[in-house]
Amino acid sequence: MRADPDARATPDPLATPGVRDVLDAAERKRAASLRRPADRALYVASHLALRTLLGAYLRVPAREVALVREPCPGCGGPHGRPAVPGTPPPLHFSLSHSHGLALIGVAAVPVGVDVQRVPGPGTVDACAPSLHPAERAELDRLPPGARPGAFAQLWARKEAYLKGIGTGLARPASADYLGADTRARPHGWTVTDLPRADGHTAAVAVLGTAPPVPCVRRLPVRVSSPHLTD
């Protein structure tokens, strides 16, 4: 999903009729804290889309979707994986956005998704020391021109997995191997690369060793789309 490129010309996406009625107080506060109009537009668009999608599954209006946080698996605090409370059958979801592009994953089991813009060589050099030793070795074997794309794909896998298990980046990036060798990745999870688009990489992590093949749909969404506020 891509935010409307004209959103940067909109004074405030939160002022769009109906938007404030759909997002909850925490989402409105987070959106208002984003200084760059493009960042705010993407945040608002992606959260409206998430609520609309979850509402369709739950058969309730987007504004009535309740979002909570599960306990953190590391410390037990209220900042674990986002969830919809009390939804039989289970409904799990994950949301990621980066530089104009958003990705939403929905599954019947715990799921994590991540989208990353391909960085410059300097970012790769700065972040590589935090990786798993085997991941660093893989990057070192690549020609310089191939490293940014490989790093972005690796990092997308890593964040998707960490979101899936509920820790996020509170768990050290070096703790788990998410490199090219699928046999050495964390047991019990399937981590899949998604098609690249517009200078971005993306990945999805799903609990289980034989989940269905991810179904990917590309959806251009405008912040002001009326169907997002139903």
Automatic annotation (TrEMBL):
GO terms, molecular function: transferase activity
One Pfam family cited in the UniProt record for this chain: ACPS
Residue numbers spanned by region Disordered: 1-22
Entry-linked InterPro entries: 4-PPantetheinyl_Trfase_dom, 4-PPantetheinyl_Trfase_dom_sf, P-Pant_transferase_sf
Assigned keywords, A-Z: Transferase
Domain 4'-phosphopantetheinyl transferase: 110-171
Family in the record: Belongs to the P-Pant transferase superfamily. Gsp/Sfp/HetI/AcpT family.
PANTHER family: L-AMINOADIPATE-SEMIALDEHYDE DEHYDROGENASE-PHOSPHOPANTETHEINYL TRANSFERASE, PHOSPHOPANTETHEINE TRANSFERASE
Protein name: 4'-phosphopantetheinyl transferase superfamily protein
